[in-house]
Amino acid sequence: KQEVTQIPAALSVPEGENLVLNCSFTDSAIYNLQWFRQDPGKGLTSLLLIQSSQREQTSGRLNASLDKSSGRSTLYIAASQPGDSATYLCAVNDNYGQNFVFGPGTRLSVLP
Amino acid sequence: DARVTQTPRHKVTEMGQEVTMRCQPILGHNTVFWYRQTMMQGLELLAYFRNRAPLDDSGMPKDRFSAEMPDATLATLKIQPSEPRDSAVYFCASGRVSGAGNTEAFFGQGTRLTVV
Question: For the residues of A29-98, what is the DSSP string, one character each?
Answer without folding.
Answer: --SEEEEEEE-TTS-EEEEEEEETT-SEEEETTEEEEEETTTTEEEEEE-S--GGG-EEEEEEEEETTTT
